[in-house]
Structures are given as structure tokens and as C-alpha cells.
Amino acid sequence: MALIDGQPSVLLQNVNKLIQQRVKDQVKLVEKFANTLYGNMSNEDLVGRNDSDLYGAALSLWQTFNSHAEPAAKIRVFNPEIAKHGWESKHTIVEMVVQDMPFLVDSVRMALSRQSITAHLLLHYPLQTERDKDQQITDFFKLGSKANASTQQTVFHIEIDRVTDKAAIQTLTDELHSVMEDVSLAVQDWLPAKEKLQEVIKALPKQSGKASAEEVKQASEFLNWLAKDNFTLLGYREYSITPVKGDYKISGIDKSSLGLMRRSASRDLMLSELPESGRKQAVNNALLILTKTNNKSRVHRPAYIDYIGVKKFDKDGKVIGEDRFIGLYSSSLYNNSAGDIPLLKSKLAKVMQMSEFATGTHAYKALLNILETYPRDELIQATADELLHVAMGVLQMQERDMTRLFMRKDSFGRFVSAMVYVPRERYNTQLRKETQAILQRALGSNEPVEFTTYFSESVLARTHYLVRISDSHVEYKVKDIERNLVEAARTWEDKLESALIGVYGEARGRELISKYVNAFPRSYKEEMLPNDALVDIGKLESLNDDHKLEMLFYRPQEEKADSKAVRLNLFHKDHPIHLSDVLPMLENFGLRVIGETPYAVKCADGSVSWVLNFAMELNCALPADFEAAQQSFQESFAKVWNGELEDDGFNRLILGAGLSGREASLLRALAKYKRQIGGTFSQSYVENTFARYAELANLLVQLFNSKFDPKSKATPKAIEKLEEQIVSSLENVANLDDDRIVRRFVDMINATLRTNYFQKSAQGTDKPYISFKIKSDLIPDMPLPTPMFEIFVYSPRVEGVHLRFGKVARGGLRWSDRREDFRTEVLGLVKAQTVKNTVIVPTGSKGGFVCKKLPETGGREAFLNEGKDCYRTFIRGLLDVTDNIVQGAIVPPKDVVRHDEDDPYLVVAADKGTATFSDISNGISEEYGFWLGDAFASGGSNGYDHKKMGITARGGWESVKRHFREIGIDCQTTDFTCVGIGDMAGDVFGNGMLLSKHIRLQVAFNHMHIFVDPNPDSARSWEERNRMFNLPTSTWDDYDKSLISEGGGIFLRSAKAIKLSPQMKEMLGTTKASMTPNELIREALMMPVDLIWNGGIGTYVKATSESHAEVGDRGSEPLRVNGKDLKAKIIGEGGNLGATQRGRIEYAMNGGRVNTDFVDNVGGVTCSDNEVNIKILLNTLVAGGDLTLKQRNKLLLDMTEDVAAIVIKDCYRQTQSISISSLLGAEQLKEYTRFIHTLEKDGKLNRELEFLPSDDELAERMAKGQGLTRPELSILTAYGKMVLKERLVLPEIYENAYFKRQLFANFPQMLQDKYAAEMENHPLKAEIIATKLANMLVNEMGPNFAQRMQEETGAGVGEVTLCYAIARDLFDLSPMWRKLEQLDNVIPAALQSKLLHQLRRTMRRATRWFLRHRNKALDIQQTIDFFKPAYQQLNKELPAYLAASEAEQLLHKQSALTEQGVPQDIAQYLAQLSTVFSVMDIAQVADAEKISLSMVAEIYFKLGDKLDLHWFLEQITNQPVSNHWQALARASYREELDWQQRALSAVVVRSCGKVCEADEVISSWINEHDALLERWRLMLAEFKTTKSHEFAKFSVALRELMLLSHHCDPVK
After folding, report:
1. DSSP β-ladder status, 549-554 and 565-573
2. Dist CA 527 CA 258 (whole Å)
3. Among residues 1558, 1553, 1559, 1517, which one has the least CA distance to residue 1535?
4. What is the arithmetic mean of pLDDT over 569-590?
5. Angle formed by the axes of helices 1524-1551 and 1509-1517, to 10°?
6. Catalytic residue among 312, 846, 961, 1129, which?
7. Is 133 known to be catalytic?
8. Of residues 852 and 29, which shows the higher confidence score?
9. Other C-beta atoms within 10 Å of 284: how many?
10. How far apart are CA 46 and CA 40, in angstroms?
């Protein structure tokens, strides 16, 4: 049993078990055989084998062994299969049973090696057997352990590489048989051959011819030495040499053959066939021929067989034959000292003697050492002369760094022996292979060159090469071959040194040599030529700390003309370039990387540089001008590496379309813009389109250049031609998507009005960003709403867009984080901004930018600095394409081709993320010399600090106060509960939560904390909030916890859960024990509180019908609630987008009180606009030297509160307007519907975008008696102003002297007093007046007033405004309105609104009157001057002119108002208003008839009373209308009635002469025309008998009245 690692192998135990179970015969023997065979197997060989296969293999070999007793070899080569053999192996199996003899194992291994077959396992065992008469084995033993054995055999089990080819199996079998025969022959004839050698030695003296006794002695000694087992004899044959016709024939005597010689018959050879040296050797006096045969031994050792020929001479000294022995020298020849071997000893002595060196000298010893260490085969075969030549040559090299070659041709021309000495430092496999190849070529050999290398302590390495030659007469020149070897041995470093000195000269060259000669790794030297390294060193030397990357892009010279192969070498300092960084860049350039090799260049000074070598293929066609492409690529790649060019597929166009990096950036920028305006195609899809159609990419760039390059000479016709060319090229574009993409690019280029693409920086280089000013509506399918202009700014670091809805527009710039769709975000904001800006001069604009390379390290500061840099780029991009004003004249930007008219107004403001950036913008504005100076960005150091003023919150608080007032609460004197969004550090939240001392803040939250105070003390909590607000920075965590009521606290938003106290449970109305922070916030938002104040960021309220995705704000999603679930009474929107519009509407429909964010937080933007307009005014004074900057800044500061008052008034008035407009609810739905339709028809309003109800929804509301909600009315109010603001920029308005007061009123009193004259030259004079008038009209008269007037009268908007201004002034509307406003919290809000609504109705009637009847020859002031005295008189003396009943009625009205708390004067004004309305008619009649006003007034009113005209007017007024036409009809009836009353009054006045009593005149006139009047009385009787009337009745009645005045008029 085998012991494996000292333990019996379980595997072999299992094999034995299998044998015991399955073998029928000779079980013990088989078991013994298996243990013998496997006994010495190593552990490694047993791993992974299974017992059944080992069992099968052992049994199979045993059967072969058992059945084969003959001396010949039994060989089986087969692939065992379970089906056939009962076991299997992954290898082919060789089984051999052969008579035991020497050399078996070596010879078998050599045979396998010659066939290039690997033996995975070779088991062999020599055994002796005892066999019975049937030759069956009865027992076996280890060889030599028993004396009398039947057979002595060796068994082999070999596992070799799998061979399945039958022919290959047969070849191997034959080869092994052949080798076995060779071994058998050699072994059988070894003794006879040895005996023959002894015979030859004995006969030598007799047959030695003329050889000296010394020579005979030496030969005998040598042969005897061989006979002492120093030569393995493999064969022998005797040869005879006989003269034949002037030649000699060498014939073998076949019967003398022994050993291997027996396998081949001898061939007769003529002496002349041998080379000269061979001929000489064959017939000269030398006794021995020592050489090598042409064949390698197949027995024992795979060396060329050694040849020992012993010549036989006749008594005349002629050669008559030869005893030829073949075999192999034993190791003693190679291992013993040459001095110990006969023949060699004498040969060495001879060489030493010929050298003439004195014994013992250094040279003698050195020469002897050279010979001693010389290859023995050479010592034996070479002559003394040859050896002396070589040894002296080696000695002369003196251990120097040089290469030498010594060659010796075999006498018989069968091989050449070459001895090559090279410095051992230079010796390597490569050099050895090259040497072999050089020798092969030089000697014309095609056989492998054998070699043996010898290393000693010498600096030289010696390699002995043996070259087999087929042409025995081959000629060669040793020196020529040696020269080639010297060149081959010249190292790469040698060549680099020569090149460096050649290029850089001795001094610099030596410096670089010492630095670089050993710096390159071996892999580099194998791949690169020294000349390549020369270029690379130049590149590496140009690297420094500022310039860390160099490159070389080239086509290898070796490539064919049509090859797409290119190379790129990158050189980098200090750190390796990571493949993962470079690979995507190269692929984006359209290069396919095939191979990449990095090389570390480690210089002598310790520095490390890196060379990266890329082998690549172009994915596109090879550029025609490769040199230009090479330059362009290198510049572009460096820019990509430095982050100056973006790394994406547009870079493919640099090589693919021959574009420059900047031109690729142009298309990239347009693609980025295309993505923002909602292209369906991803950027990579667009990149692939241009990669496919490079020509189109080129044409688009040409189109752009011809339109915008200031140096372009392109005519419109040439541009048109280019476009036609693009269209015709599109014919070849098969894919519709590609076609759409290219057309979209053409649209974008055509929609572009200006670009800074051709502007240069101060350094004269291209600017690192590109901006485009675009006319948005020229691009089809733009997302709605479409801005008037937009500017898109692109750079690798930042992208941004600025949308403007008019030439004069304002809005903030936001630092967005929505990289994919920031324009969508900005578009949403600008929509709200435009609506918000209706209060101010400019319309809406909004900008947004995204930083694309935010730092991942460096913390908040680095993050902020990158944001500021991106912001600067964005601002510069905007100003680059904006006109300037210098001394009143427009100055277009430099190097910008303008495809639009002058456009100098551009202002920006702070927004999310840019709150502190205003000074940065103003700094850039100053740098550009921009005309707005620091009015460019409001809120800078010398602007109004919104937080300090609290202006946004104060504006929003006006809304809150109104909401409270309208539910009967004065929130400034009454405690109320509140939930807040934000923290005290914030502007809107912090300021807002200090605006009433009666706030009971129960819950507030921001992104970090939740503040809960279930039962707050309003006074103490206000003090604490005030303290926190005044801290430099604060969070809710700074709140004094001791002031929080029981059960409250401050909780982290990051907490997993918050335990609810009983007080919190009660407050929230829940029974839950704990909630997550998000749940708590949701519940808090749905708490029954008085107010939710939003001063934070995020959208928290949506409509039930809206999905979170539609809302878009992912961050607030877990907190968001539906509008109908809110139980708060009021929402105050200090922050933007706190609720969606649909969410607000849903909340309002369910009884909530809310406006919109743009109404509530308009204060900030109003303040900014006031600041800009004031700065524009004052900056002209500064520029003109009338004011210093310091004085200007002080003035600005002094006016802070004045500006705030203007802003607050605007906020107050806007919410007031919404309240008045909502007063009648469903009654006014029809006129608002008509207004919506008008706006839609004019393209001003997109109902879906503003979430206004559809016609069906409006009809439904009408049926339910529901009007528009406040959020919806907020939109209409805004649109009413927006439209008017645009339309009122009319010369008839801004050149009208009367409206100048609107311009002055826009500025604080302080400025009006000092600079009224300068105000008239304000650049925005027209816009300011239009804005003030639009706000006045809408705030006082409702959103649809102007539209209604235009529809009813056909007048233009200018005329409507004029007439309204007259009516307003005449009726003293302004002071009365202010007086009514002062009644806040004095009289009920509902009454207040009703009274204001009454004013609105009367003003509408008055405006209509002036539109119909005013004398257009008079201007506004003249018209007012004409009517004002009459108005004043009438107002004062009205009761005297009225019929008693009517006077009493008015008194009754008046006292009803005073009882409700309305002051006497206001009550009187309001009670008389509709009566006093007749003043215009009365005044005109008095003027026309030249009769006193009092007389006309008395007649007018009393006649009206007598004829029941006033009662009839009431019937008209109270007539319900069901559609627009009926409303128009009703208005016309009223007018008609007024007109008839006036006409009748005039008739009556005329009838009385100069002086008379009104009552008398009327009585006599009535009596006179009684018959005619009877008809009118009957008409009235009809009206009095029914409650409801048809419209037709009114028409008929009024016609009767007209006929009455007509028939009664004496002057016809």
C-alpha cells in the first residue's frame, strides 16, 4: 500500500476494494500490480482522479502485461471510453510493455518530445515475472530481486495530450516502435561494438601508416579512455577506401554493421564529393577523425551523434579504410578538466606552446582558462591552429564592451560552429534569436540553429551556435557577419544616446542621456524605436506644473494609404493617466481604441512621467488634410482634457467632418438648447445623426457663419442658397428622425438673432462660452407660453437660459439643479413672473442656470465659488448680446451681427440660490460699461435689502390682513393660530412671523427641524422669534425650549419617528402614539388653524386630480397634501410655488381663502422695479455730474420707507381689486367668460396653462351659482393688467400732459419735489405711465373694464383710458376711495367691498357717457374744468333740486349707511352718487340753453320724478340679464333713458323763457302735452302691473319717450 505524505492513500484503498470486488482471476496479483504501479505517484498527480479510472487503467495495463511475454515491445495508444473499456480519461493513454533494457525512459520521453506531445503522467516500472507454461504471470517482483525469472519487462502507463486523429495515433505508435527498435539494437550490440573498439585499439599500431609513435600513443590513449565507459557506443561500421579513376570511393561494409548502423545500408561516397577540408582529412596522416554526424540521437540523449573514425593505413601510408564508431560522449568528457582527457591534454599543450606565453604569466593563465572553459566538442573537433586563433582573439578583447564572432566549418561541410562573445549586459533572448537568424541567413541554412550559452564572472557572455548547412561548399565572410552581429547587439540605449547627441549636441545631449537613457521601461524599448523616444523626450521635457499634458497624434508611416489606423501618444507629469478617463474621450472623438500601453518613464532624478500609447482606428473616413486634422484634434483633445471643451459625441465631428473644436461646440450648444425646448431625441441620437451626415454638420456651421460672422460677405441670396443646399442634401437622408433633427437645427439657426460666438476675449482668444439670442416664436412646436426673446448661454461648465416676455422685462436668475430641463423650470417661473409683474413696469422675465461641474470636495465654499463663477459666465453671456446706451445713443455689442432692432433693456434680480449675487452682476455691468450700471441687478450693496425692509413679507401680509378682515377678524389685535413653512433665518418667513404680535405659531418646519408649540403664548413667542430673527444665522434649534408650551418641542426631520405628546395628539386630532417626521408635517398642514404662512421652498399643496409627477417638486412629495384636505381658513403665500394653481383652486372651492403666490409676494418684485427706475433716473444725474455717487446712495437710503409705502399700497390695492371682483360671484361669471374668450382670441391667454375653467366647467358653475375663485380671479386681474400695460404704450397717452402726474406718482415725493423735470426724460417714461394706468384701471374697475368699454362703445383703449381719467377726476373718486380704505376694521369688510363696487359701477357708467358724449375738441383737463363747477354745485345743493320724495329717499339711504358706521360725508357722497351722475347732462343742457345750472338741475330731477323716469330707471337697472347681449341692451336702455330725460329737460327748459319757477314750468308743460303724456302713462302702467319684464317692453317704452320729446320740442 502506497503511503502518500506518510498516510495510506484512501484513493488507492478504494482502487484495491474495486479490484477485490470486480476482478475474477489473479485478484492478489492485480492488487499487487496496482499498488506497485501507483505506489510512487505524487500527491499532486492523484488530485482530481477517481478510483474507478485508476482501477481501469491498472487493470488495462495488467492485461497487456499479462498477455505479452515476447522480447519485442507491445505498444497500445488509445482513448479509453466507459462504453468500450469500462473506464475513461481526459487524456490519450499509451501502454507499453517492453523487455527491460537501458535508455528506455529517456528515449520514450525524447520520442514524445519530438512529436511535440506533452506527457501529463508517466508511470513506469521494471519488473521480473514468473510465468506458467501458457505464459500467464504467476508472480512478479521488482527487477533484480529474484535470480531466475521468466521475463524481465518494463511496463509504461503514460497519459499524453488528447489525440483523436487515427493517423496521428498510428504515427505515434510507429515512432515508439521505431525508437524501441533503436534502443534494442544499441543495447544488443553494445558489447560487440565495445569488443570491436578493443580490437581496433590493438590493431592501431600496425595500421597507423606514417604516424609518429607519439601520435599513435595519443590516439591509443584516447580510444582506451573512450572504452572505459566514457563513450556510449550506439553503432559501428567498417569502411574501405579504394582508388577509382583518379578519385577514391568510400564504401561501407554492411555485414560489419553493429547497433544503429544496422538500420541503414551504407551508401558509396566518392571522395571528390566532400569539401576540400574533408578530402584532406580523409586522406591525411591523422589517425582519428573526430566530428559529429548529421543526425540527432533517438536513444539516451537528444544530441547530435558523435563520430569517431579510426583510419587504417597500408604499409605505404595510404588510407585504405576506416573503423567508424558512433555514439555519445559520456558526461565525464564535459565535466572533467581538459587536462585530464587524453588527446585534449596534448592539443592544449600544443596551443599553449604556439602562443609563446611564458608559463605562469597572467596571459598564460588567462589563455588556459579560455581553453579550459571552451566547449568540449569544439576542443575535440577543432585543430590546434583554429583553437589558438579563437583563444587569442578572446584574450585580445580584454574584457571590453565589444562583440566578436569566431567561426569554424566542419571538415566535412555538415555544420558551421560559431562562437559569439557579447557583453553579458547586452545578452538577451532577443539578441540570441537575432544572432541565430543572422547566422542562418549568412550560411543559407533553413534548419534550426542549436545554441549553448555560457556565463562566467567575465563581463562577456559566450554563446556557441551550431548551424547545420546543406551546401557543404558555402562561402562566408566572418567580418561581415560580425558587423551585423555588432549592429544587432547595439542596444536601444546605444542608439538613443547617438540620437540625443546628434540632435541636442554634446552638452545638452549628455544631460538628457543621464536623465533618460535608463528611464524607459523594457516594454517601451521593445515597442518603440530610439527615434520615437527622441520625440517623446522632447514632449516630456516640455511638461511642467502648469502644463501637465502633451500629446502626439499621428498616422504610422507603415500604414497603407487607405488604412484608418492612427496613433496617439499622451505625455503626463507625476501621475499616470487612467485609461477609464481617456477611453470615453477618445471614443467620443470617433476613435476606436484597439490597444493601449502605458509606460512609466522613471528619470534619474527620481521624477516619473507617463507615456500612454494608443493604437486606434478612425470610425469615419480619413480626413483629406490629415495635418490640419492632426492639429485640430490635438488642440481639441487638450481642451477636453482641461475641461474647456465638453466630452461627448459631438467631438466626432472634429475628425469626421473637419470641424474645429469650437464649431463642434456650436452644434453641441444648439443640441443642448434643443434638448431644453423639448426635443424628443436624446443628445446621443443627435450626435449619431451628425456622425452619419458629416456634410450636413458642415453646412449648418457654414449657414451659421454666413449669418453671424461680422467678416462674412454673404448676401441674403447666398444664405438662401445655403439653405437650399441643406434641403437638397436632406433628400439623401433616408431616416425621417435624422431629417427632423437637421431641420430643427436650421430652425434654431434661423431663429437666432444674435450671438457672441465671434467675440474674442481680452486675450484675443475665443470666449469659453457661447450665447445665442433667440426669437422663440420662430421655432416651430415650442413649449407654451412662448417668450418674446430668450438668451441661451452654453459652456462646458454652465448652461443657462433667460426668457423675456417683452422688451422691458424683469425677473430673477435662479441657480437651478434641474440639468435636464432647467428651461422647463424657468418657463414655469417666468409664467408666474409675468403674471406677478403686472403691477410693475416691466413684464416678466426669468433666468436659470445649472452648474455642470460642481466640485465634489472642498465643502460649501468650493460649491458656492463654482456657482458664482458659473453665474458670472451666465451674466457675461447675457450682456455680450445686449445693446448699450451711451450718451442717449444705442451702441450695439462688438462683433455681433444683429438680426433684430435695438434692444437695450436687460435687468436681473436675485432668486433661489443667487440671493447674494447682485453685486457680482452689477460689477460685470460696470465692467461692460452697461448703461444701467448698478440698476442692472436690484438689491446689491447700494440697493434695497429686501430682507432688511421685510418688503416681500409685508406685501404678503396685506393679503393675510384682508383675508382675516373679510372673515371679521383684525389679525393685528386678535390672536390667531398659525402653521408656518420656513425658519426665522429666512426673509419671508422670518419677517412674516413678526408682522403681528398676535400670532400663535403652533407648528413650523424647514428642511432640518419641526417646531411644535401646541398652546403658544403669542407675546412671549413673538419676542423669542424676534430674538432669533436678529441672530446672524439661526435654525429652529436655537429657539429657547423653555418658552415652548407643554407637550411641544423641536424635532429633527432626520429622526425615524417622533413620539406624540397628549397635547400634540389633541392639536392634531389623532390617536397615534408616534409619527414619522413627514407624517407629522402632513398632519400639521391639515390641522384646523387660522393661517398657513408659507415662507419656504417647496410645493406642499396640490389638487386631488394632480399627480405628484405633474407637480414636479420631488423633494416635497412626501409632505404634499390635497387642497380639499386643508382645514386652515387662510393661506398666505410669501414663498413661490407653495401650492399648485389647481391645488389653490380646489382649496378655494372648499371654502379656503387664498390668492396666489404672485399676488401675495409681489412686494419684492415691485420694490426691485422701483429701485431700478429710481436708479435709472438718478444714474443719468450722476453721469451728468449733477449728483455724486455718494449723494445718490444716501438719497436711495433716505427714500427706503417711501418706496416701501408705494409697494405696500400696490399690494393692498391688488388684493382689494380681487375682493371687489369676486363680490357678485356667479352673477359676473358671464362677463368674465367673455373676457377669457377675448384674451384667448387675441392669443394673450392659454386657459389650460393657467388652469382656468373650461366653458363646460363655467356653465356648470353658473348652474350651481358658483363664481370664479380668488386664485382664478388673481389670474384674470393679472392678465387684465398685462394686456393693458402693453396696449397703453401709446403716444396719445404718454405725450398727454395730464398723464404726466402718473409718471411723477411712480416716484417718492422726495424725488418729485427735486427732479420732476428730469423724470420727463426717463427712458421708460412711456412704460411707467402705461403701467400706472393699467394698475389704476384694473385695481379700481376690475380686470375686464377696458375690454367691456371697448366692446360696448367701439372705442380704442387710449380713448377708454382718457374718458375714465375724466370721470375719475370729475367725481373725486381718488379721495373718496382713500376714505373708504381708511374704514378697514371700522365697518364690515363686506359692506366696504359693496360700497367700492358701487363706485366701480358708477364709474363705468360715467366712462361710457364720456366715450359717447365728450367734446373731443377739449383735452382731459379742459373737460374736467368744464364739468367740475357743475358737479361741485350739484353735490352741495342736490336736495334743493330734488322732488321731496326723492330727497327723502336719499336721506334714508344715507342714514342706513351711517348706521353701519360709515362717516357722514362718505355716506352722503355714496347715497347721492347715482343721482349726481346726471351732472354731465345737466351741465351740457345749461350750457347749451344758457340757463342757470340750478334751474336746469331742478327741472331735470323734478321732471324725471313727475314722469316716473327715476322709477323706470330702477326697473331697467334691476332687470336680470342672462347673456352678454342682454347686458348690452340693458346698458343701452339706461343710456337711452338718461338721454331722453336730458332731451325732455332741454325741451321743458326751452319752453319757460329766461326766468321761471321750475315746478310751474313742469306743471304747465305737462298740462300742455297731456294727450301725448297719456300714452307714456299707459306704458308705465303696463310695467307696474307685472314684476318681470321682457326686454322688448323696454325698447317700446323708450321709443314712446323719444317720440314724446320729439313731439313736444317747440324748436324743431
Report:
1. antiparallel
2. 55
3. 1517
4. 83
5. 170
6. 846
7. no
8. 852
9. 11
10. 11
